[in-house]
Amino acid sequence: MTRLSTNSLSNAPASVVLPAYDRTGLTAGIVHLGIGAFHRAHMAVYLDDLLKDNADWAIIGASLRRPDTKQALGPQDCLYTVAVRDASGTKPRVIGSIVDIIDANVERERLLETMASPNIRIVSLTITEKGYCHDPATGELDAKHPDIVHDLANPENARSAPGLIVAALARRRAADVAPFTVMSCDNLPSNGVTCQRIVSRFASLIDADLGRWVADNVAFPGTMVDRIVPATTDADREAVSKMIGADDAWPIMTEPYTQWVIEDNFPGGRPPFETVGAQLVESVEPFELMKLRMLNGSHSTLSYLGYLAGYEHVSDAMEDENFVKLVHQMQTDEIMPTLDMPGTDLPTYRDQLLARFANPALKHRTWQIAMDGSQKLPQRLLGTIRDRLASGNSIDRLALGVAAWMRYVMGIDENGKSIEVKDPMSMRLMAIAAEAGQSPEALFDGLVALPEIFGSDLIDQQVFKSVVVGHLENLFEHGASQTVADLVVQ
Ligand code: NAI
Ligand code: CS2
């Protein structure tokens, strides 16, 4: 079969949706750092919808840690398929909004030159929570992070996202070129403010004047982003290639649902996102809190408990009625009361989330969602727990999510098999777990003492400790399935 490329499009079956514009007329207005699965199912699709009348807003993608991205998409003229899947079937669409891909590790100078050119007015990011090189509990730059230490000593040879952004901004400042707008599309709390804090701090460590210039002149609009995008498997590649009649080395599988809420703060201009379904708002905070707590808090809880119970995918766990009850009760009784979303029907939002999690066509691995828990727990579960404790309300189900994470980072599943715990802190986490042995209390005490995750307050929270340790004792003794069954109100 021929490789997906501009030339292969003319032979695509009628069922495949193709770009509705002439790609040869496009110029880039955006550099996206972290050209991974989510960006290609989300922002790149919104841009694909608006390029017909806005040809100067194409995307140049940069991969900072995945050289295989360019190896896969380069030979395909950066074309790829988005396969939207649900119980009714799969709808393939070829996306053309990415016009070039730069491998930051080997083409750093070309990346910096591109980011410094005036036609680039937005630099957006989906670099995973760990890509911000920050302290997840405080949102501050971690100046001791190895990438930051390296980049402060070698600013023109930066390898971190904050380092690359500052190096490009410094070039624009020196050339008297207006700065680009930095738009984080990651699942970070207050992702715009957090990104501004991190980038400004990094700049000030390079040069105090540069730090002030960044803080005073660069816009960092916040966003809430939502579309469930599992990592692509070889089976997906085979299925999509058959569907489109050409070999696609990296198609993207996703769900029908998509949402994008963006703070309207783009001094250098922006595409008309509102014409393609994005919501432009003054403050994204309430939307972000709702999504990070209701969707991501539930996702992480399902991922640890589901993995321990032997469910490979979220949809498998959602076939267990006790798991469905757990998430429904956690959302209804413990998360929704902490949200202030006038005009949003939270019960309907909840029921929509449960249906999305149950999507039988989306094989979202519990192991994938379980990744990087140290970077995710603060905004997904711990913030909600703090609010519930402050108001003297129950945290039973939320605390089970934390207990399941603590059990998971022991690195041994309920059948005695090892778990590949992927996390920037995995060595420290597993060392603490090994030290704790089979003592639930020792495990809790060791992990809650990590300020990067739990801050400095939860270590002294006796209610938090007793509820989490109680769940750990049940997980140790009865396993995840029984612990969930015992907790849910039947
Ligand atoms: P992915 O693994 O497909 O892509 C991650 C991208 O981040 C890659 O391009 C990689 O090179 C880059 N990266 C990884 N570690 C990095 C580091 N330390 N510094 C700089 N760049 C780094 O993952 P995917 O699915 O694209 O998700 C990325 C982020 O998008 C998530 O962490 C989350 O913040 C956000 N997101 C993901 C959703 C999903 O369902 N996959 C949904 C909503 C948001
Ligand atoms: C998931 C998110 O992998 C994870 O941590 O919880 O990527 C989730 O799929 C998205 O936030 C959905 O919008």
What topology does this entry show?
Blueprint: E1 28-33, H1 37-41, H2 43-50, E2 58-63, H3 68-73, E3 80-86, E4 89-95, E5 98-103, H4 108-116, E6 122-125, H5 146-153, H6 161-174, E7 181-184, H7 191-206, H8 208-217, E8 223-226, H9 234-244, E9 252-254, E10 259-263, E11 279-281, H10 285-308, H11 314-317, H12 321-335, H13 346-357, H14 366-370, H15 373-390, H16 396-408, H17 426-436, H18 440-448, H19 451-454, H20 462-487
Parallel strand pairs: 1-2, 1-6, 2-5, 3-9, 6-7, 10-11
Antiparallel strand pairs: 3-4, 8-10
Helix pairs in contact: 4-6, 6-7, 7-8, 10-12, 10-15, 10-16, 12-13, 15-16, 16-20, 17-18, 18-20
Quick structural overview:
With 490 residues, the protein is α/β, with parallel strands linked by helices.
Distinctive features:
binds D-mannonic acid; 47% helix; binds 1,4-dihydronicotinamide adenine dinucleotide; 20 helices; 11% strand; alpha/beta
Walk me through this protein's architecture.
- The model has no long low-confidence stretch (mean pLDDT 97).
- The chain starts with 27 loop residues before the first strand and ends with a helix.
- Strand 3 and strand 4 form a beta hairpin.
- By secondary structure, it is an alpha/beta fold.
- Helix 4 packs across helix 6, helix 6 packs across helix 7 and helix 10 (285-308) runs antiparallel to helix 12.
- The chain has helices at residues 37-41, 43-50, 68-73, 108-116, 146-153, 161-174, 191-206, 208-217, 234-244, 285-308, 314-317, 321-335, 346-357, 366-370, 373-390, 396-408, 426-436, 440-448, 451-454, 462-487, and strands spanning 28-33, 58-63, 80-86, 89-95, 98-103, 122-125, 181-184, 223-226, 252-254, 259-263, 279-281.
- It contains 20 helices and 11 strands.
- It has a 5-stranded parallel β-sheet, sandwiched between helices.
- The site of D-mannonic acid has 10 residues, from helix 10 and helix 14.
